[in-house]
Amino acid sequence: MKFRGFGWTRILDECRVSIMKLRVSNRKMDGLTLIEVLVAIGIIVLLAAIFLPALAATKKKSSKIGCVNNLKQIGLFFRIWSGDNGDKYPMEVSVANGGAMESVVTGDVVSVFQVMSNELSTPKILICPNDEDHAYATNFNSDFTARNISYFAALAAYTNSPQAFLSGDDHFQVGRVPVKSGLLEISPATPVKWAAERHKFAGNIGLVDGSVQPVNNSGLAKLIRQTGLATNRLAIP
Predict the structure, then answer these.
(1) Of 1, 25, 83, 213, which one has the fewest beta carbons inside 10 Å?
(2) What is the pLDDT of residues 43-58, one digit of tens each?
């Protein structure tokens, strides 16, 4: 049987040829798609190798800046509190009058920040972003402990002594031994240095004048001398 000059055999042959061309085309497309995927993966791996170290460095720098900002805000809150308490910090005001004098002399830094809870608003500001040894607290109630604080409070912080220590990072070591929670007494002759953790042998010190000084070990020794005190007493969390 003919159909306008075309036989069924010819039609079937043309269909088979078309199917074969489609199969070959699909195989080619499959091969190209696989190559494209491999190329894309290679590009992604290359870009990751280039940019991830830079992103990590940026994140670390951001965390360091966050620690400085925390201490600046803490210094401001100390000043606000002192403005309502005769220009004295909690370390200078007795517990009976709403301060933390009797507690802080034992090295209890928790009491200092608890009496300033209204000014601080949230205890999260008391944790350095690079601190992996302490944990964030959600409030200042009975569950708030030294484990929720990254910063020391200085006992000899007086509003009329601008170069005195007020607060700062607590990751000190004396004679290569990390300091423990409690009262730390240091003089210009004390071999106190920063531990490697947190800021890699560096740290931040908040002064009474409101500034925050990022310093290395030699800078720390210089700041200790500049306080003019024979002994600096710090409440370490």
Answers:
(1) 1
(2) 787 776 775 665 454 4
